[in-house]
Amino acid sequence: MATGFALTELTARYARAVDRREAATLASLFDPDATFVLPPALTGTGTASELRGGDVLASAVVDAVSHLQSTRHVVHQQVIDVDGSTASGETYCTAHHVYSGRNGYRDNRIALRYHDRYVLGDTGWRFSRRELIVDFSEDVPVTVPD
What we know:
By secondary structure, the chain is α+β, with helices and mostly antiparallel strands. The chain is built from four helices and six strands; from the N terminus they run ααβαβαββββ.
């Protein structure tokens, strides 16, 4: 149970670091040689793209959301399989991306999943690979308090 909790906590820390735009925190959650796979829906190229290295992918993730008014990444269920000092899992998430549109604020809501691989090191569990999969999205008006 402790390992499952540690991996759930790792995922929650990732979501919070993205929402707070904390590149250093994000980088600390990844193995130095980690891979992050972006789906064609988010690359704008029609093909998947891979980022390598904790510092590189942390900067890229923060840069990708920096133009938004705010984000809210809500972690849902996880299924995790542990095998000694490695683990794999699938995490469901809803990502809210709030931006200023022509007629007020809008929320580009994305239902997504991560296929994750984890590695246990001297400082605890870290992501060794995250593959983001977009299931569907919607764009709706929202009210942002002053």
